[in-house]
UniProtKB/TrEMBL annotation:
The lineage of its organism: Eukaryota, Metazoa, Chordata, Craniata, Vertebrata. One of its GO terms (biological process) is cell surface receptor signaling pathway. It comes from the Eukaryota. Keywords: Disulfide bond, Membrane, Signal, Transmembrane, Transmembrane helix. One of its GO terms (molecular function) is transmembrane signaling receptor activity. This is Immunoglobulin domain-containing protein. InterPro entries: Ig-like_dom_sf, Ig-like_fold, Ig_Fc_receptor, Ig_sub. Residues 42-120, 128-202 form the Immunoglobulin domain.
Length: 311
């Protein structure tokens, strides 16, 4: 009878273990998915000298902007600001040698996406989004003369080939598709030519989905939240079902000959495997508490899974 009880406890411990592992994997997944992203304001790839650029480091508390050749931008710690979703850093008065690739180092040694900037001391720039544009969106390219904000006649080029001339200086692309991707420049008759910059078109749409491990997470389309929810729900159902089965089985075995051992067994059972108390990934402390409880009560769990340590 004693070994029977041990078996039951092992089944319970195994279920708990499995659920914990699944949840930890999902939480880890969540961290990967919640990738650090770099935004830029104004969102364009070309600037005149002495303009200001603000970088937004999403998902990190401190914006450490890195330039491909200059390294970490030291002025960032003077202009660093917390935002509701991360932090920002402004570079005032950019100059031509501020051209190039920028990114930030995320916690854990990963890099964010990068953006390419061209700072021009010429008289014409092409205003083109620095960040990738979603398929289907409307994109406006603007050919801008430094000395005048009035409308100018502009010629637009895609991979060096003329595509359109516009008397307003603007080129509007509706419902962009992958074929609109590429290198663009513009030519302002009389004033000169802009540098060439990439327009990147990306598929699908990012969506914001709430997830137990974090309040909000940005999922890419390849990471289907419905699958995750379904799997999680199924695991929970199986777990609750198993728990129920184990308990009733236990009752049948234990309550017949003696009731005291049954009641103590029941207590440990309900204590160690309360599914609602496990559902607390979003609060780290609670998660730790539950884990600690599992580790001390599960006993064998700690020995078998020394990697199950949460900080
Ligand atoms: C800002 O960064 C520079 C270079 O990284 C460093 O020398 C300086 O101490 C930092 N200042 C503050 C206030 O963190
Ligand atoms: C960094 O990124 C790689 C690939 O995107 C990922 O496998 C890894 O887990 C990430 N590391 C951290 C600490 O987020
Ligand atoms: C554009 O700017 C240049 C000088 O930067 C100026 O000479 C020219 O007249 C301007 N062109 C237009 C169309 O305003
Ligand atoms: C946008 O373009 C795609 C093809 O690239 C087409 O299938 C779709 O119907 C277009 N949508 C609109 C609103 O024009
Ligand atoms: C720029 O525009 C002028 C006319 O406005 C044209 O003659 C010239 O070939 C264009 N330059 C380029 C590189 O397309």
């Amino acid at each position: 009878m004693f070994s029977q009880q041990q078996d039951n406890m092992e089944v319970t411990a195994l279920c708990t273990k499995l659920l914990l592992i699944v949840m930890m994997l999902l939480c880890e997944q969540d961290h990967k998915v919640n990738a650090a992203s770099l935004l830029i304001h104004p969102n364009r790839a070309q600037f005149f000298v002495y303009e200001a650029i603000t970088f937004y480091c999403e998902g990190v508390s401190y914006c450490e902007i890195v330039h491909e050749s200059k390294g970490q931008i030291s002025s960032c710690n003077k202009t660093n600001k917390r935002t509701s979703t991360g932090s920002s850093c402004t570079i005032t008065n950019v100059y031509t040698d501020d051209s190039g690739k920028y990114w930030f180092d995320a916690e854990g040694g990963n890099k964010s996406n990068s953006v390419n900037i061209i700072v021009s001391d010429g008289s014409v720039i092409l205003e083109i989004p620095a960040l990738p544009v979603m398929k289907g969106e409307t994109v406006t390219l603007r050919c801008r003369n430094k000395t005048t904000s009035s409308q100018i006649l502009a010629h637009f080029y895609h991979y060096g080939e003329w595509i359109i001339s516009s008397s307003t200086g603007n080129m509007i692309m509706y419902n962009v598709s992958k074929s609109d991707e590429g290198l663009y420049k513009c030519n302002n008759s009389g004033a000169g030519e802009s540098a060439e910059s990439w327009l990147i078109i990306k598929d699908g749409q990012t969506e914001t989905v709430s997830f137990p491990c974090k309040e909000t997470v940005v999922f890419s389309p390849s990471f289907n939240p419905w699958i995750i929810s379904t799997v999680l729900f199924a695991v929970l159902l199986v777990f609750v079902g198993l728990l129920h089965f184990v308990r009733s089985y236990w009752h049948r075995v234990v309550s017949a000959p003696r009731s005291e051992s049954g009641s103590t067994g029941n207590q440990t059972g309900s204590e160690s495997v309360n599914p609602t108390s496990l559902w607390c990934c979003n609060k780290k402390k609670q998660k730790q508490k539950v884990l600690e409880r599992e580790l001390t009560e599960g006993g064998a769990l700690k020995d078998k899974f020394p990697s199950l340590i949460v900080n």
